Amino acid sequence: DGINGKLLELKNISMHFGGLKAIDDVEIEVLGGTVHGIIGPNGSGKSTTVNVLSGVYMPTGGNLLWKGKDITKYAPHGIAQEGITRTFQNLQLFEDMSVLQNVMVGFHRHFKTGFLKNLLYLGQVSKEERYYAQKAYDLLRIVGLEERAHEKASDLPYGEQRLVEIARGLALKPDLLILDEPAAGASPKEIEKIMDVIQRLKNAGLSIILVEHHMDIVMNVCDYITVLDFGKKICEGTPETIQNDPRVIEAYLGG
Ligand code: ADP
Ligand code: MG
């Protein structure tokens, strides 16, 4: 396992909902220390794949291996404990809380009971809270948002809110970070910032799965890309390979 080894393996993974094959017999190998893109048109099965990887759905077929260990039947908390963290396609921030508080929520598993309540209702600030506030600041610095720490999360532009979500994900100290369309709804400038952050996290040694609908966004930052269409893997390879593959071009033009 670890850098350059197989970190995560999807072995013939299927997720069928009745007759609908949201993903069908998909094989993916994610190597440690890489950014692995999963792309495909709308409805191709990207989010379903993420839901299977994060334990939201138990696949109807196939196996999921994490560092060689079978985690197919793990529930979301079990997957999280293994060091796999995901963000959601739709923002999951607490709108009325500050940016800093939203990141602090990411540390909740370390908290004593009552901590979250204090955060929400601004009770006394304990030593513990100051400790995690400092750690949350450090994460905000990584995503370039330390100056926004005390603003209300919902007052930030959409692209920066996505970065807050990424910072909160980092609080769990993941070995693998799964980002489901982190650039959705962001402006071109914000997208650039988000891709910058992903590049920086990769340089720091984090393994990342980057799910994107738009092909062009992932090309600079991904080491390897899997392309889905109608729940099937239609092609995989380096960004250069993908960009020139006629099946990919057709999937996007036809989709
Ligand atoms: P993507 O993220 O690539 O846009 P999804 O994984 O969200 O695609 O969806 C793939 C297909 O699976 C779609 O046809 C979608 O309607 C279907 N699907 C996703 N989740 C469910 C579900 N819980 N029940 C039934 N169908 C679903
Ligand atoms: Mg999706």
UniProtKB/TrEMBL annotation:
ABC transporter domain boundaries: 8-255
Cellular localisation: Cell membrane
Name recorded for this polypeptide: Branched-chain amino acid ABC transporter ATP-binding protein/permease
Organism this protein belongs to: Psychrobacillus mangrovi
Residues of the full protein shown: 336 to 590 of 604
